[in-house]
Write a structure and sequence with these properties.
This protein is an alpha/beta fold. The protein is built from 6 helices and 7 strands; from the N terminus they run E-H-E-H-H-E-H-E-E-E-H-E-H. The strands form 2 sheets. Strands 2-1-3-6-7 form a 5-stranded parallel beta sheet, with helices on both faces. The protein has a two-stranded antiparallel sheet with strand order 4-5.
């Protein structure tokens, strides 16, 4: 079984999303014997933004194949200017590939990347969840759910640490809550 672990936060050791993805990967490696883990740091080794030339070569790209080969994908995302880091968006641009992860037919789009589990660790400085006066500004979780749903992923989990910018106590409580969620993740991978 293969696990692809992606981190995209630019804050290094101070990153909440990196701490949470590490806990998720540790939990899954404890529950899956022989789990083959590949870690990519999209902030340390950023992918360039798409050009017409790179766009035309996406179907043969290593990024989409690495994604398709993974049984589990763990993604760490900060929340910058109301959305995901541009480093993560550059990776998504390389996996949302017509003919590889989605297709179009008579009834519209069809996702081709089902049968894998995606777990997202999202860290937000403010509170943007349902009922928050800032919920309309949340464009990270909604974007990621939309993209992965579009390409056929039905086994999607999101662990959120939010309110991180509201003081040290709020930060600590949010991270601890997210780490507890990570420690309770089920071991099973849903196969569609």
């Amino acid at each position: 079984m293969k696990l692809l672990h992606l981190d995209s936060s630019i804050t290094g050791d101070n990153s909440a999303s990196r701490a949470i993805t590490a806990a998720i990967v540790e939990r899954l490696s404890d529950t899956h014997q022989g789990l083959e883990i590949t870690h990519r740091d999209l902030a340390a080794e950023p992918l360039p933004h798409l050009t017409m030339e790179t766009c035309l070569a996406l179907e043969n790209g290593e990024d989409v194949q690495q994604f398709l080969d993974a049984d589990i994908v763990v993604i760490g995302a900060g929340f910058y200017n109301f959305t995901i880091p541009s480093q993560l968006k550059a990776w998504i641009d390389r996996i949302a590939v017509r003919g590889k992860t989605f297709s179009y037919g008579e009834n519209g789009p069809k996702g081709l990347a089902g049968g894998k589990r995606v777990i997202i660790a999202l860290a937000r400085g403010n509170v943007y969840g349902e009922g928050s006066p800032f919920s309309a500004y949340e464009h990270a979780e909604t974007l990621l759910r939309s993209i992965f749903g579009f390409i056929g992923v039905t086994d999607l989990e999101v662990i959120i640490a939010e309110g991180l910018g509201r003081g040290e106590d709020a930060r600590k409580a949010a991270i601890e809550g997210a780490l507890q969620q990570a420690s309770r993740l089920e071991a099973a991978v849903a196969i569609v």
